[in-house]
């Protein structure tokens, strides 16, 4: 005889599963968080922060050297063709055959790239971007091969494609 008032088995009721689901979501969320922590390194923290701090004095001197020389540049990016062109002003930087341009992502160091620019004319330099440039803010730094000075600025790619560096 089937008794209507006989309770259902616990696994056929809503509330036990609801109460099990709450802590289970916390366990799954913590597993995902642990996975992210181990697989995605924090690009903002440097292991050699002390050396980086000591090197800042050298950076300041190189930046000051560019200011003393009066170096400025106009940089143009053509991301569709993968070209970069730089025009230096007539500062007394000497006869440079090559320039190094660094595209530095503020938070993702694995996206950073260094591109060597070849001289194509009087104060004109061009280079080729070999990898995809992700949209976002980028620090653009230009320096000669001997790294005696550098100029830098910030650019939002791909919305802007020209930058005046001073």
Put the structure in a nutshell:
The protein is of the alpha+beta class and 166 residues long. Helix content is 28%, strand content 32%. It is elongated.
Named CATH architecture of the largest domain: Sandwich
Give the overall shape.
elongated
Low-confidence stretches: none
The CATH superfamily of the largest domain is known as Immunoglobulins
How many strands, what sense, and barrel or not for the largest sheet? 8 strands, antiparallel
Task: Please state how the strands of the largest beta sheet are arranged side by side.
Answer: 7-6-3-4-5-2-1-8
Strand composition percent: 25-35%
- CA(first)-CA(last) distance: 92 Å
Label the structural class: alpha+beta
Number of helices: 2
For the record, the CATH class of the largest domain is: Mainly Beta
| Estimated radius of gyration | 28 Å
Average pLDDT level: 85
Helix proportion range: 25-40%
Into how many domains do the coordinates divide?
A: 2
Could you spell the SSE succession in H and E letters? HHEEEEEEEE
**What name does CATH use for the topology of the largest domain?**
Immunoglobulin-like
Strand tally: 8
Q: Could you describe the 3D structure shown?
A:
- With 166 residues, this protein is α+β, with helices and mostly antiparallel strands.
- The protein has 2 domains: 26 residues; 117 residues, Sandwich (Immunoglobulin-like), CATH 2.60.40.
- It is built from 2 helices and 8 strands, in the order ααββββββββ.
- β3 and β4 form a beta hairpin.
- The longest helix is centred in the N-terminal third of the chain and has 26 residues.
- The protein is elongated, with a radius of gyration of 28 Å.
């Amino acid at each position: 005889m089937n008794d209507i008032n006989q309770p259902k088995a616990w696994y056929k009721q809503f509330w036990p599963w609801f109460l099990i689901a709450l802590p289970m979501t916390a366990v799954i969320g913590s597993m995902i968080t642990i996975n992210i922590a181990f697989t995605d390194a924090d690009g903002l923290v440097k292991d050699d922060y002390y050396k980086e701090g000591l090197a800042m004095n050298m950076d300041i001197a190189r930046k000051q050297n560019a200011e003393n020389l009066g170096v400025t540049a106009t940089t143009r990016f053509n991301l569709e063709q993968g070209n970069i062109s730089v025009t230096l002003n007539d500062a007394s930087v000497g006869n440079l055959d090559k320039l190094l341009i660094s595209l530095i992502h503020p938070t993702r160091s694995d996206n950073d790239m260094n591109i060597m620019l070849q001289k194509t004319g009087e104060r004109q330099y061009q280079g080729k971007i070999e990898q995809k440039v992700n949209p976002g803010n980028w620090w653009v730094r230009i320096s000669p091969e001997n790294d005696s000075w550098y100029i830098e600025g910030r650019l939002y790619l791909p919305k802007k494609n020209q930058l005046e560096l001073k």
